[in-house]
Design goal:
heterodimer; A: mainly beta; Methylamine Dehydrogenase, Chain H; 4-stranded antiparallel sheet; globular; B: mainly alpha; two-stranded antiparallel sheet; repeat (chain A); WD40_rpt (chain A); WDR54 protein (chain A); WD repeat (chain A)
Chain lengths: ~325, ~400
């Protein structure tokens, strides 16, 4: 169903961090951009669709105002808003926002170390654009910072701070399709496995809270009112966003899931885990019963690699990209 | 990132170091009556092991180690092991020390990668400690120290969540990133490929708490299961039999972290072609080292106060060679690729006044009284403690 295509070489290898691959495909242009995090720096690669011609850029984690100290990046992701696209980096020190090609930093937010209990790790993690004009970023103390993004310029401000999680945020996802009424615009996940569903706006409102069952939720996606969550025990679970009802349970991977992605045009779901496998699934809703269905479509084994990032390269899900720990390349697969 | 990584890193690397030293000492030992003055005997071997273990598990040192703190840089940590390896009458040349450190780090990297659950890193640590207790079974005093550390590990780590353990694991993997040194024993056992990457099996028992992949269950709005399907892959997984014990004594089940060396299986490392990303490695050196201050302090203190453990009197220093012959060791020193150099600053035993002044000056400049929240100098204390042992 999918066959391997030409890989993209990176200047440095990918770190073993959740959701460590972001892809930006600008409609109308042939250019796709890829980014993966490597310790204190992030690889930003721009590739033409035919695979010829790449340009590389490496951005460094900002070290903060104080004396010399390196920071480790935890994640990099493009946030697509109606008016602009920003590249957001999260690190141990704070949050950096750049123009989409990584050329200019437009905003820097330092994490308040005093907010965290002493002896605990401090970092930001979890990035998503929401509500057409916000970017949400999580922190290790469980807070979700909501940034208001103007159409252009650098006047970015903290619009709100959401305080529902008690454990480090792992991932945040915005609704990629059409949410049924009351189903919410955003889902946030944390280390304990708790999921919160929100509606976005001047004030974000909590719509439902899906309790943890004892496993970390490392990656989450929201599509047509369905929450798809990947867990540390290798399971993928599907929930109704509006009610928190469990709709499907998949024993998907033999080890910790590191990344999920979803193709909104077709409902294809992509999962990658430490067990070296990447799976493609298909989500759908039965029109009669309204039940959520999921079926397995395809499996890829990335030999001797712990997968840490997976992304579809187009909204139909006809191609996807993968990277893994210690791997200095982005592997690509396309439909045969 | 995780502030609880250092004790696990230190103890596991230390454990591997002891396995290797024990193997090399046994390989090079001569029966007591036949030994010349400069040759190893069994008695010497036990003494070296006891000395190193005593230093490793010193109470004050452990207290400092267990305080929440960021991981040391590779350079700073290497310096700690240099000091530890020389805590006895044993001497190692730079080439042998480099090889020792390569083996230690690749072994632990392998163990961290292959741990089924992040929490299993604790079982790996317990395996190392169980073996260390075996090394010193005839020395009850030191045994007590090790048990104390065991208890502290249990107290600190058994309450951590899976998510926190994964963060520890991720922190360790960042530390080990891009290390692909080929180890002969791993290549022979087919757990490492010729390109230096470890083999990750897609068969065997799944981690405790994970189901064998394959089942899909779907539920209706009432919560009733309405559909069940299965999928298959190339993987060949089975359910695990039992969970390893996290108690002071018990069957750990996991084999990772147990001693894989024996006298008949010597270890060699291969340097060539094991570093793919020279660019990334250079970058690592350019990025400011957060522990540069600590390292300079440590060295300054060492130079100022060093009481070398060079044995006086009738004892001569015993040199241990990690290679098969002296010529091999010399050759390894000359041909070690530049990018793999640990760039450890050589500790001169002679106290040159000029040098000390220079370092004191630097030391003076660096001791700024700015109110940094984490400026309690924990790293310095830890390393400084080693001097006092």
């Amino acid at each position: 169903m999918y066959r391997k295509e030409k890989s993209i070489q990176l200047k440095s290898s990918s770190a073993a961090l959740y959701n460590n691959l972001s892809v930006l495909r600008l409609p109308g242009r042939q250019l796709a951009c890829f980014s993966t995090v490597h310790g204190p720096s992030v690889n930003v690669v721009s590739a033409a669709a035919d695979g010829l011609g790449f340009s590389h850029r490496q951005l460094q984690a900002k070290e903060g105002g104080m004396a010399v100290s390196t920071s480790i990046l935890t994640q990099a992701a493009w946030c697509v808003l109606p008016s602009r696209v920003l590249l957001v980096l999260t690190s141990q020190k704070g949050i950096q926002m750049y123009e989409s090609d990584g050329s200019i930093m437009v905003y820097w937010h330092a994490l308040d170390v005093t907010e965290h209990p002493p002896g605990q790790a401090v970092f930001a993690r979890g990035i998503a654009a929401a509500g057409g004009r916000f970017i949400c970023v999580g922190t290790s103390s469980g807070l979700v910072l909501v940034f208001g993004i103007p159409h252009k310029g650098t006047n970015i401000t903290v619009s709100e701070v959401l305080e529902q999680h008690h454990d480090a945020i792992t991932d945040i996802a915005a609704e990629l399709g059409q949410a049924p009424d009351g189903a919410g615009d955003l889902v946030t996940a944390d280390d304990s496995g708790t999921l919160c569903v929100w509606s976005a706006g001047e004030e974000f409102t909590l719509l439902s809270k899906i309790p943890a069952f004892g496993c970390t939720c490392s990656s989450v996606k929201l599509w047509n009112g369905v929450v798809a969550a990947g867990y540390g025990n290798g399971q993928i679970r599907l929930y109704e966003a509006a009610t928190g009802l469990l709709r499907a349970e998949v024993n998907a991977h033999a080890r910790w899931i590191y990344a999920l992605d979803l193709a909104p045009e077709t409902g294809k779901l992509l999962s990658g885990a430490e067990d070296s496998f990447v799976h493609v699934w298909k989500l759908s809703r039965n029109p009669d019963t309204n039940d959520v269905e999921i079926k397995h479509c395809h499996a890829e084994c990335v030999t001797d690699t712990q997968v840490c990032g997976v992304r579809f390269c187009d909204p139909e899900g006809t191609s996807f990209a993968v990277t893994g720990y210690d791997l200095s390349e982005i592997l690509r697969y396309g439909q045969a | 990132m995780s502030m609880r990584t250092l004790p696990l890193l230190f103890l596991n690397l230390g454990g591997e170091m002891l396995y290797i030293l024990d193997q090399r000492l046994r390989a090079q030992s001569i029966p007591g009556e036949k030994a010349r003055k400069d040759e190893w005997t069994d008695v010497d071997r036990k003494r070296v092991m006891n000395d190193i273990i005593t230093t490793m598990f010193n109470k004050k040192f452990m207290e400092e180690l267990f305080k929440p703190q960021e991981l040391y840089s590779k350079k700073a940590l290497r310096t700690v092991y240099d000091r530890l390896a020389h805590a006895s009458i044993m001497r190692l040349n730079q080439a042998s020390m480099d090889k020792l450190y390569d083996l230690m780090t690749m072994a632990f990297k392998y163990q961290v990668l292959l741990c089924p659950r992040p929490k299993d890193i604790l079982l790996v640590t317990f395996n190392h400690l169980d073996a260390i207790k075996d090394f010193i079974q005839d020395a009850p005093g030191i045994l007590n120290q090790v048990d104390e550390t065991f208890r502290q590990l249990i107290e600190t780590y058994t309450s951590l969540s899976a998510g926190e353990f994964q963060l520890i694991r991720q922190t360790l993997l960042i530390f080990f990133q891009d290390m692909h040194i080929r180890v002969s024993i791993f290549l022979k056992d087919k757990v490492q490929n010729s390109n230096g990457r470890f083999v990750l099996p897609i068969s065997g028992p799944v981690p405790w708490g994970t189901e064998v992949p394959g089942l899909i269950r779907m539920f209706n709005h009432n919560g009733d299961e309405v559909k069940r399907t299965e999928f298959t892959t190339d993987g060949n997984y089975v359910t695990p039999q039992r969970e390893g014990s996290f108690d002071l004594y018990g069957d750990r089940v996991l084999k990772l972290g147990t001693n894989m060396y024996s006298v008949s299986r010597p270890v060699e490392t291969h340097m060539s072609g094991s570093y793919k990303n020279l660019a990334s490695h250079t970058k690592e050196n350019i990025v400011p080292n957060p522990l540069a201050k600590e390292e300079l302090n440590f060295l300054a203190r060492l130079l100022g106060e060093l009481e070398t453990k060079t044995p006086g009197g009738s004892e001569t220093g015993f040199r241990l060679n990690l290679f098969m012959t002296d010529e091999e060791e010399e050759h390894a020193a000359l041909t070690r690729p530049e990018e793999l150099s640990y760039k450890v600053v050589t500790i001169e035993a002679t106290q040159e006044p000029g040098r000390r002044e220079e370092l004191s000056r630097i030391l003076g400049e660096m001791e700024v009284a700015d109110p940094r929240p984490d400026s309690s100098g924990k790293g310095e204390d830890l390393l400084a403690l080693m001097d006092g042992l």
